[in-house]
């Protein structure tokens, strides 16, 4: 089977709400594709349509070229974690996996293999109702992996996981992709995908905002900015501005310079006799890049009359960045953009 | 792109498309794993069995009869079945072969009351005057024309419906042939019967009798079925006994298990007179099989009305529990062909409830026998029932089948509504409410209401034997919604099929 997910012109309306509005993207094998967008952007709806749960009003979602509903032993082709709490609370974890194995004619050994893989061995014979959200996430991941499928979809898999669990799942996603599988991971927080996603499909209001590799996105967002720390801010700004750079002050002794390479800046400052205590090429975080994209999406949002327009979108972004926490320099980047 | 793409090879050999049968088989296994792995459901199916047996024994212990103390209840015919054998008999002995011819000139009510359709008068040959002894008779009836009847259960229809009419009975060995004629000259054979127990010396003659007319009285919560007596008078002429012996004189006997003129009968209910070749016979009673009035085998099985509630809950929860937690999506992810998931669920829930229900009804049948016997439901008025009798087997298996169908019906309704509480309450109402309302309605309205609701399936529990030549009343309280026990199950099957069909259609159409 060709391990891909192809979404073509997908459209879905629930009542008067358009949840997915002409979405098209492809999830390629061998990489982790992040599926990002704010809550309500249509990520879960899209995943449900890929899984054949909801019928699209228009367009199609194909797995290896076929609609999900035509797959014969689907668990061997697609594994999905859509909702971690979708287990009967009275059923033991192992029995939950066991019925899934039976339904697709899988050997019972797979049940024990995936239990070990997600580390649920000690609680496998306990009722799932007593599980913490993190344990249920692991059970859901075990269920997705039971058929050893070439295509995997995880809807918000790090929700409820402790830091150790988050590290574990990032490693798992990377290794699954390295085995040549197509992995689609949704999140409403870009920071959660930092370090695990290779490719990003960013959506907003049911439409694709960006479909790009993480590499390209970061390069574009960083675009030659250099962070400069100096006690002589005024002189430095004059020297660099005269050389054609655009300079912004971020703090009492820091400047962001763009339009000049770092080596050139060092040379100019030395020539002008301006001392500085530090210089670093700025590496944009995914969060910053996401913010950049969200800002573009704001125009589109403005059409529906969001009060305050850009301001409200930025507020969302800052909140998201703060929650992400681990991304360095994201907070200062936020201020810079103001 | 930093990763070099390797082509993924799954370690699990995906199952090929094995066709509907194998794939449904896998889903059945999956659904069975789902069912057995929820302890509450296992307890639920056990509760269904325990409630059915417990309630059944409770009902059995509260029932009783004094039938064995009444002699007319315990007359037994040649086949061992309980019979009615009460009539006015004007007779003389007949040694060996011979016959009798007579014309019935009238058959009328003698007490001014309504006459039963199965009132009867005619010629008869009988082993003797002992009630329950073997006989053959050809007769006229007001409602059913000429009949040839023998040994209580055999009944052959003649052609004529006219009174006056000629009748003839001819004995040759153990076979007896009945004839009818409009004019006494051209005779038509009605039929020939064999009476293995008929002795060389038999009694031959005229008879008249009539069953009572049923009166059903209903008030809210109680129904009484009464039979008012109906006395008829028949006149005969042209009476001629063909015999090789000298003509003997006529005797008049009231054939009855109790003494004529005793408590059961009034003095003028029976009379036999003759003058100038005209015989007049007055009588009441019947010569017929006695239908089982009470149905003691069925009684304990009505406990299923309580056990049924567990079956309803199981059927509904088997699907609504999945909707409640979104687990239905996992099920449909594992099998996108939703119709097969529904089919597998129906197979599992019906098999579980049927098997458990059958164990419960077999236990209940045996456990209830001593309870019923101590309540008076004992031989000879109530012959010992055996599980191997088809009518008993039908009630035992049918009750389990009822539970299974109710569970599948509930599964269908649960799928349609996707809400546990509403579906369970709705189905219980649909099944229980009619039986409560029925007792307050006129009998025909009650019967029709029960026929049209899923509870009609309970009519499979009837074990009473019915005979076409005996009038019997069918009241819903006795589980008699259909006189044919299987017909009611057909109604429940139809309800179940419609619920499943609608559920299937909605499943395919709806977003999960």
Task: Tell me about this structure.
Chain A has eleven helices and 13 strands. In chain A, the strands form three sheets. A six-stranded mixed sheet of chain A has the order 5-6-7-3-8-9, with helices on both faces. In chain A, strands 11-12-10-13 form a four-stranded antiparallel sheet, covered by helices on one side. Chain A has a three-stranded antiparallel sheet with strand order 2-1-4, covered by helices on one side. In chain A, helix 2 packs across helix 3 (109-118), helix 6 (214-222) packs across helix 9 (286-302) and helix 9 (286-302) packs antiparallel against helix 10. Chain A folds into two domains: 5-212, Rossmann fold (3-Layer(aba) Sandwich); 225-281, Alpha-Beta Plaits (2-Layer Sandwich). Chain A has 338 residues and is an alpha/beta fold. The longest helix of chain A is centred in the C-terminal third of the chain and has 17 residues, at 286-302. Chain B has ten helices and 17 strands. In chain B, the strands form three sheets. In chain B, strands 1, 3, 4, 5, 6, 10, 14 and 17 form an eight-stranded antiparallel sheet that branches. Chain B has a seven-stranded antiparallel sheet with strand order 9-8-7-2-13-16-15, with no helix packed on it. A two-stranded antiparallel sheet of chain B has the order 11-12. Chain B is elongated. The interface between A and B is large, with 58 and 46 residues. Chain B: Keywords: Membrane, Transmembrane, Transmembrane helix. Chain B: It comes from Actinomadura rudentiformis. Chain B: This is ABC transporter permease subunit. Chain B: It holds the Pfam family ABC2_membrane_2. Chain B: GO terms for molecular function: ABC-type transporter activity.
């Amino acid at each position: 089977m060709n391990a891909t997910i192809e979404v073509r012109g997908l459209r879905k309306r629930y009542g008067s709400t358009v949840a997915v509005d002409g979405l098209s993207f492809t999830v390629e094998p061998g990489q982790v594709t992040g599926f990002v967008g704010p809550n309500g952007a249509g990520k879960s709806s899209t995943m449900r349509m890929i899984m054949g749960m909801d019928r699209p009003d228009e367009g199609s979602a194909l797995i290896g070229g076929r609609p999900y509903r035509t797959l014969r032993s689907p668990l061997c082709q697609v594994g999905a974690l859509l909702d971690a709490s979708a287990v009967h609370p009275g059923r033991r974890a192992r029995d939950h996996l066991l019925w899934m194995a039976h339904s697709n004619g899988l050997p019972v050994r797979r049940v024990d293999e995936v239990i070990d893989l997600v580390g649920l061995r000690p609680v496998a014979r306990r009722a799932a109702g007593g599980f913490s959200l993190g344990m249920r996430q692991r059970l859901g991941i075990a269920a997705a992996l039971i058929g050893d499928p070439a295509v995997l979809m995880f809807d918000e898999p790090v929700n409820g996981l402790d830091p150790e669990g988050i590290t574990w799942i990032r490693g798992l996603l990377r290794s699954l992709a390295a085995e040549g599988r197509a992995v689609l991971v949704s999140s409403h927080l870009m920071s959660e995908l930092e370090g695990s996603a290779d490719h990003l499909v960013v959506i907003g209001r049911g439409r694709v905002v960006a479909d790009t590799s993480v590499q390209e996105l970061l390069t574009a967002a960083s675009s030659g900015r250099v962070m400069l720390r100096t006690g002589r801010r005024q002189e430095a700004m004059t020297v660099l501005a005269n050389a054609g750079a655009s300079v912004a002050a971020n703090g009492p002794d820091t400047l962001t310079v763009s339009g000049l390479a770092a080596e050139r800046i060092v040379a100019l400052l030395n020539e002008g006799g301006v001392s500085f205590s530090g210089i670093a090429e700025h590496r944009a975080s995914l969060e910053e890049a996401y913010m950049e994209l969200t800002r573009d999406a704001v125009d589109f949002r403005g059409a529906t009359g969001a009060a305050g327009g850009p301001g409200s979108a930025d507020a969302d972004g800052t909140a998201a960045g703060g929650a992400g926490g681990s991304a360095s320099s994201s907070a200062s980047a936020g201020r810079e953009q103001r | 792109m930093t990763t070099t793409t390797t082509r993924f090879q799954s370690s699990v050999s995906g199952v090929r498309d094995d066709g509907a049968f194998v794939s449904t088989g896998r889903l059945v296994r999956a659904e069975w794993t789902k069912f057995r792995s929820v302890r509450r459901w296992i307890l639920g199916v056990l509760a269904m069995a325990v409630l059915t047996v417990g309630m059944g024994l409770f009902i059995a212990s509260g029932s009783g009869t004094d039938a064995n103390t009444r002699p007319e209840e315990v007359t037994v015919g040649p086949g061992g079945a309980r019979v009615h054998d009460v009539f006015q008999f004007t007779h003389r002995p007949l040694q060996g072969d011979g016959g009798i011819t007579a014309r019935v000139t009238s058959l009328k009510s003698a007490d001014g009351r309504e006459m039963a359709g199965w009132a009867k008068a005619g010629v008869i040959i009988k082993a003797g005057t002992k009630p329950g002894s073997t006989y053959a008779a050809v007769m006229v009836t007001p409602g059913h024309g000429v009949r040839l009847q023998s040994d209580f259960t055999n009944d052959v229809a003649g052609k004529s419906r006219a009174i006056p009419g000629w009748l003839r009975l001819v004995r040759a060995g153990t076979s007896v042939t009945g004839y009818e004629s409009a004019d006494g000259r051209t005779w038509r054979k009605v039929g020939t019967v064999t009476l293995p127990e008929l002795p060389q010396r038999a009694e031959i003659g005229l008879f008249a009798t009539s069953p009572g007319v049923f009166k059903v009285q209903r008030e809210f919560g109680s129904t009484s079925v009464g039979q008012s007596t109906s006395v008829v008078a028949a006149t005969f002429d042209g009476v001629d006994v063909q015999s090789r012996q000298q003509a003997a004189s006529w005797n008049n006997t009231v054939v009855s298990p109790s003494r004529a003129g005793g408590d059961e009968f009034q003095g003028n209910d029976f009379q036999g007179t003759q003058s100038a070749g005209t015989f007049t016979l007055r009588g009441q009673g019947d010569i017929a099989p006695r239908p089982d009035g009470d149905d003691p085998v069925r009684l304990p099985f009505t406990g299923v009305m309580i056990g049924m509630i567990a079956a309803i809950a199981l059927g509904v929860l088997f699907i609504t529990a999945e909707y409640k937690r979104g687990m239905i999506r996992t099920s449909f992810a594992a099998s996108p062909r939703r119709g097969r998931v529904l089919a597998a669920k129906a197979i599992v829930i019906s098999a579980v409830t049927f098997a458990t229900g059958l164990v419960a009804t077999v236990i209940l049948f045996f456990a209830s026998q001593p309870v019923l016997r101590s309540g008076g439901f004992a031989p000879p008025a109530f012959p010992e029932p055996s599980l191997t009798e088809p009518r008993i087997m039908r009630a035992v298996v049918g009750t389990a089948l009822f539970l299974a169908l109710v569970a599948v019906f509930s599964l269908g309704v649960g799928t349609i509504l996707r809400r546990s509480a509403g579906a369970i309450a709705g189905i219980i109402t649909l099944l229980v409410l009619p039986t409560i309302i029925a007792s307050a309605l006129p009998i025909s309205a009650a019967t029709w209401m029960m026929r049209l609701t899923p509870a009609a399936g309970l009519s499979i529990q009837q074990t009473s034997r019915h005979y076409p030549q005996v009038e019997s009343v069918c009241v819903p309280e006795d589980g008699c919604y259909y006189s044919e026990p299987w017909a009611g199950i057909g109604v429940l099957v139809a309800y179940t099929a419609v619920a499943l069909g609608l559920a299937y259609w909605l499943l395919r159409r709806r977003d999960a």
